[in-house]
# Entry
Amino acid sequence: MSNINPELRKDPISGRWVIISTARAERPDPPEPRREEETPEARARCPFCYGHEEQTPPEIFTIRKNGEPPNSSGWLTRVVPNKFPAFGIFPEINLRRVGMFQIATGYGAHEVVIESPEHDIYIEHQPPEQVTRIVDTWWERHVDLERDPKLKYVLVFKNHGRAAGASLTHPHAQIIATTVVPDALKVKLSRAKKHYEGGEGCIWCRQIEQLFYYENRIYNPDGSVLVEVYQRDRLVAESDNFIACIPFAARMPYEIHILPKTHQHSFIQTTPEERVELAGILKTVLMKVYKLLGNPPYNFYIHSAPNLSVRPRMGNYMTIKEDFHWHIEILVRTTIWAGFEQGSGIYINPLNPTDAARYLKEIEVDEV
Ligand SMILES: [Zn+2]
Ligand SMILES: [Zn+2]
Ligand SMILES: [Zn+2]
# Structure
């Protein structure tokens, strides 16, 4: 495989351009795992450890070993409202105008999913059963929040490491539910709908197909091969029902997407068996990232279709069950988006997606 250097690639879903600017690189030696700095006092005070349940607002949901009473120790996963919420559940949504500006009451939900009682065991080091409990906890909360028809969008996300925005070391994810569909999703929704209406089906299903069955060659005038991209080379891991891959126009070296192979519009459609498998591939991918890059900071989030109990099958939502394909996006913080990225919305990725996938594939992890 060879490639033009540098190369502009367009992401078909976001419409975003990325400059892949890379010399063919050898895999770097994995660094020592980065350790999160924390004072003994901060650790002793951690509100997410056993015995400190009263330091958080009362719990919303838990998976427990033996049905201990609420807000006591013994839980395996625990969900509490965020103590410093970006949103709260207010009685009504109050929209006002101030000149050209709009203000709405911050109606919504902001929850914290504490992944386990263990203060410094990351998700990738948890046993498979615990990772499944974590994924099931996200699912339970996502399903429950969609029962509120005022909440149009539920976003499950995780910040790992201070550099990625985690303010507490104890492993946790967050869930925010909003009365508006976030702009980042609106762009994807409208492009996905256009693609579908153009008669080409789900844009993610097509990409998965390309990944498995497509070879792409661009020729020089003399007939020699200028670019040759085997889409399949972007695959990082695979199970019966899920794939993990580096997207064609990855914004950063280790942007990794996890998708169900067969079409589903929302994470809430997954079956318990599928969530066991999802937990497995997530653990595998995060363990590869941990080993290759030495516990780097990262963010991930689940992109599902908006809450369909709000506006079932109307207007923009008419074909959403067919045109939107849920997925997880993992963004490992190995690069910093600077002025050019901020100002132009064009990203510079210094590592070819094929090389990134190869480095991750080469990292051995125990079979889940
Ligand atoms: Zn803790
Ligand atoms: Zn699809
Ligand atoms: Zn997405």
